[in-house]
């Protein structure tokens, strides 16, 4: 289920302790996601390992825009996965589909 869909302003800000926890967990989830992305799509389907995908703050902003701390804590890995997928989809769109002209 895709729960993250971009960022919104204003959005709530998670506590510093939860942000630290997210930043500690993102590298391993990102590595697993990247490995699964390659396995499922070759390289890359409609996903791109770009700067949003690689940026912790981009993932955190998507989570903060979509849920509360309480809901996030019920499915930490799932929310991280959803945020990374949204980042990878945005990176793909801006790299391959957006008409810049």
Write a brief structural summary:
With 101 residues, the chain is an all-alpha fold. It has 5 helices and no strands.
Annotate the secondary structure layout.
Blueprint: H1 16-41, H2 51-54, H3 56-66, H4 69-74, H5 76-97
What features would you describe in this structure?
It is a single chain. With 101 residues, this protein is mostly helical. The chain contains five helices and no strands. Helix 1 packs across helix 5 and helix 3 crosses helix 5. The longest helix has 26 residues. The protein is globular and about 40 Å long. It starts with 15 loop residues before the first helix and ends with a helix. 32% of the residues are buried.
Q: What is the assembly state of the chains in this entry? A: single chain
Strand fraction band?
under 5%
Tell me the Rg in angstroms.
Answer: 13 Å
Distance between the termini: 34 Å
Which stretches are poorly predicted, pLDDT < 50 over at least 5 residues? none
Biggest β-sheet: count, sense, barrel? none
User: Which percent range fits the helix content?
Assistant: 55-70%
Shape designation? globular
- Strand tally: 0
């Amino acid at each position: 289920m895709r729960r993250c869909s971009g960022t919104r302003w204003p959005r709530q800000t998670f506590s510093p302790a939860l942000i630290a926890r997210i930043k500690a967990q993102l590298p391993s989830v990102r590595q697993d996601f990247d490995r699964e992305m390659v396995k499922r799509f070759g390289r890359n389907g409609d996903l791109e390992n770009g700067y949003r995908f690689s940026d912790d703050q981009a993932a955190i902003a998507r989570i903060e825009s979509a849920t509360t701390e309480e809901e996030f804590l019920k499915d930490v890995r799932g929310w991280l996965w959803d945020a990374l997928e949204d980042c990878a989809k945005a990176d793909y769109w801006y790299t391959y589909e957006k008409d810049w002209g």
